[in-house]
Design goal:
By secondary structure, the protein is an alpha/beta fold. It has helices at residues 16-28, 45-59, 70-78, 92-99, 132-135, 150-161, 165-168, 178-186, 197-200, 237-246, 249-257; strands at residues 35-41, 62-68, 85-87, 109-114, 116-120, 141-144, 172-175, 192-196, 211-214, 223-229.
Length: 264
């Protein structure tokens, strides 16, 4: 059930009216409902929207989602942003926040292990071995800012492991985060780019469009994505419930359906 706050209205209940209003709230199940402010990695946009919708439906709590780069979220959290839960694109940032006292100790866990993919919105551009990177024939290769986005760092690792980084470096265009990187490729501003596998798969687990090469995981460091309870969410029922829900069977099923592995 959706719970919306009215704006610009001041309604006062007295006596029986106030008592009746309280009973109505209890009957409709909105009493005790809470809202959790979540900062989530851009690569996890679609699965998190689906998970949040089911969580709201089954718990009665609300979820306010903000998607972006993990590096920027870290800076915002340190500056006092009102986030209560962080779903990072790495495991270093949650651990750092925990060590700095900005997150609850012992609350951190891996909710997904990401997979990197080389993708083009056009068919027959990217082959199943990624040899297009050695052949060339493209003007721009998109990847997320490696200083802010773990998927961007993984892309750089891959290019270096393949021995093509120095050749391709002049052609690289950087997105602020993985969502912007995907946009560069989907709009044709870059013929191909490194994005998260979850971004190019449909709900059926198949490639939505174009051509792609799933990068072998031996070419880059594991992208372990950790969730953590932030200090501002320590006493929030919705924050605690959401983290529990993320470890449940429904959320795990969604995570897997978008091409992620599940952390142990």
């Amino acid at each position: 059930m959706l719970f919306t706050r009215s704006m610009g209205m001041n309604v006062k209940f007295k006596g029986v009216k106030a008592w009746a209003a309280t009973i109505l709230l209890l009957a409709t199940g909105t009493a005790g409902a809470d809202e959790v402010q979540v900062a989530a990695a851009a690569n996890f946009t679609e699965p998190m929207k689906k998970i949040a919708a089911e969580f709201e439906k089954t718990s009665g709590h609300k979820v306010a989602l903000t998607f972006g780069s993990t590096g920027k979220f870290y800076a915002q959290i340190k500056a006092g942003a009102p986030f209560e839960v962080l779903l990072a694109a790495d495991n270093e940032t949650p651990a750092k926040l925990e060590g700095e006292g900005a997150a609850a100790k012992g609350s951190r866990f891996t909710y997904a292990i990401g997979k990197l993919v080389l993708w083009s919105a056009k068919e027959a551009i990217v082959d199943d071995k990624g040899d297009v990177l050695k052949r060339g024939g493209f003007d721009h290769l998109a990847l997320a800012n490696p200083k802010l986005a773990p998927y961007g760092a993984a892309a750089v690792e891959t290019l270096k492991a393949l021995g093509v980084y120095d050749t391709i470096a002049p052609k690289i265009v950087q997105g602020e985060n993985i969502a912007q990187t995907y946009q560069f490729v989907s709009t044709g501003n870059a013929l191909l780019g490194f994005v998260a596998l979850s971004q190019v798969l449909g709900e059926d687990g198949k490639l939505k469009s174009g051509s792609a090469w799933i990068v072998p995981e031996k070419l880059y460091s594991p992208i372990r994505q950790d969730a953590v309870l932030l200090s501002k969410g320590k006493d929030k029922a919705a924050a605690l419930a959401l983290l529990k829900f993320l470890r449940g069977s429904y959320a795990i099923g969604v995570v897997k359906s978008y091409g992620y592995s599940v952390g142990q």
